[in-house]
Design brief:
By secondary structure, the chain is an all-alpha fold. It has helices at about 5-15, 20-40, 45-50, 70-75, 80-90, 100-120, 130-140, 150-160, 165-175. Helix 7 packs across helix 9. The longest helix is centred in the N-terminal third of the chain and has 21 residues, at about 20-40. The termini are far apart. It binds fe (ii) ion (2 copies).
Length: about 190
Amino acid sequence: MRPTREQAWETLTRYTKSESLRRHALAVEASVGFYARLYGEDEELWRCVALLHDFDYEIHPTLDKHPQDGAPILREEGYPEELIEAALSHAEHLAMPRDTQLKKVLFACDELSGFVHACGLVRPTGINGLEPQSVKKKLKQPSFAAGVHRDEVYAGAELLELSLDEHITNVVTAMQPIAKDLGLRSTEDG
Ligand SMILES: [Fe+2]
Ligand SMILES: [Fe+2]
C-alpha cells in the first residue's frame, strides 16, 4: 500500500487527541516536506513519516514503549516497512542507523521544529521575521523550552551538512505557511 497524507493524518488523529502533539506532528511535517521538495524526494511519503513519527506518544508516553510499540500498530494498518523504519529511527534510544536522507531529515527536523515553535509562541509576530540569530540565542538559554534536546538540534544540522543558520532558516520558512494551524500569530491576524 502506498500511504497518503490523508491516511496518515487519519491514523495520527485517531491515536492522538492532544492539540500540542498534533501541532508537533504538523510542524515536523512541514519541515520534512520542505526538505523533500528541496531534495526532489517523495514528498507525500516523507510527510506521512513525519506525521506518524510520534503518533503513539499519547498512548505510549515512555521510552520503554515509544516509538517501538507503535510499529506493530502501523504494520497492522498496512503502512510499508520503509515508513515504519524511518519513523522508528527518530528515537535516539533505539540507536538505529540513520542511513537514508529521510531518516536524517526526520531526526534533524524533530527537535528543531519544536524549538522554533516555542520561539514563535513567545513572539508577538509568531515566527514571522524570526531570525536564526535569535533562535540560536534562545538555544543557549537552558531554561527556555527546556525539554528540547540542544545536542540533537546541533547534531541534526551536522547530519544534513548544513550550517545551523541554514537549517533554522529552512525550518522557519517551512513552518510559516501553517503558522495559524500551529497556534502562532501570523500576519493575517493583522
Ligand atoms: Fe518521539
Ligand atoms: Fe517528535
